[in-house]
Amino acid sequence: MQSDPSSSPPADASTAAAWLAASRALCVSTGAGMSAESGLATFRDVDGLWSKFNPAELATPEAFLRDPCKVWEWYRLRRARLAQIEPHDGHRLLAAWEARIPDFTLVTQNVDGLHHRAGSRRVLELHGRLDTARCIACPFQIVGLDDLGEDPRCTECGQRLRPGVVWFGEALPQSQLAAAFDAAERCDVMLVIGTSGVVQPAASLVDTALQHGARLIEINPHPSAFSGSADAFLRCTALSGLREIERHRP
Ligand code: OAD
Q1: Are 12 and 102 found together in one domain?
Q2: Residue 245 is part of a domain; what is its CATH number?
Q3: Of 91, 115, 127, 248, which is the active-site residue?
């Protein structure tokens, strides 16, 4: 059993705020926990998506080949959910920091587009976007949350459309990945928020930053793969951690 997330002010917030205020190059890496307070389920928490759904049946290229309608049905539900939710103030704070810190990169594993909706522009979306669909055969893609139907087809070539996300066993978008690792190498502070740190290659960004001498700040109500290496661990939710850091801004 996981313990209840603490909402009490994290002791490390003032230290983290001082490091962030002095940072010339910040890399922020977010996972599903960043969106939890907007109302989206995470994957590996007790009530997470992977406790109810089998990723092998829904989030692999093989699953899509076997049963595209079933895969699309799950993605249709997730796309519909996106239309009902909003970014929270934590997303908006990160968007504001982008203007303050000279070299700022936000890397996310999230496919919900909430960072963009909150105003962030320097965002690398390593796992794609729920609100896109692309052709399995040609470069055609559709952006938007329109209902595409049970088994949508490409208007250019007639082949099947698939969700524009990265599935297990697939390569990540190369240019985004390379830019993310560049940012991890350059940064003097790495801030990691709401990820369990078990999915590669995103998890390696933190190791890369540490190897290049960055300080590591983590915000997560539960320990993750990174917590033992964190210089400051704010054991609280994304929203309360980011608010606390902002409150302590020197
Ligand atoms: P996980 O579900 O693995 O981890 C979510 C993390 O968020 C956990 O460490 C939680 O403790 C933390 N958390 C929960 N509520 C939080 C809150 N309110 N504030 C902050 N943190 C909170 O999600 P990811 O690490 O993002 O990939 O998962 C990585 C990838 O695995 C996903 O992008 C997805 C999934 O399979 C694909 O589908 C390819």
Answers
A1: yes
A2: 3.40.50.1220
A3: 127
Q: Which atom of ligand 1 is nearest to the CA of 31?
A: 26
Whether 189 and 240 share a structural domain: yes
Q: Are 194 and 112 found together in one domain?
A: yes
Token pair recorded at residue 102 = 């000279």
Average pLDDT, integer, range 137-154: 94
pLDDT (0 to 100) of residue 137: 97
Q: Would you state the torsion angle of the CA atoms of residues 193, 204, 32, 24, taken in this order, to the nearest 10 degrees? A: 30
Residues 131, 75: Cα–Cα separation, whole Å: 10
Domain range for 155 is 41-84+129-165
Pocket test for ligand 1, best of 35, 45, 58 (most atoms within 8 A of CB): 45
DSSP state string for 106-151: EEE---S-HHHHTT--SEEETTEEEEEEEESSSS-EEES-----SS
Of 114, 146, 165, which residue constitutes the final position of a domain?
165
One domain for residues 184 and 218: yes
What average pLDDT does range 46-71 have in this prediction?
A: 95
Ligand 1 site residues (CB inside 6 A) read 31-33, 36-37, 42-45, 48, 59, 109, 127, 166, 168, 194-196, 199, 219-222, 224, 237-238
Residue 10 predicted with pLDDT over 90: no
Average pLDDT of 143-147? 92
- Does pTM top 0.85 for this prediction? yes
Q: Are 123 and 133 found together in one domain?
A: no
Q: pLDDT at position 6, please?
A: 45
Is residue 191's pLDDT more than 70?
A: yes
What pLDDT, on a 0 to 100 scale, did the predictor assign at position 11?
59
Known catalytic residue at 127: yes
Instruction: Calculate how far, in angstroms, residue 196's C-alpha sits from the geometric centre of ligand 1.
Output: 5
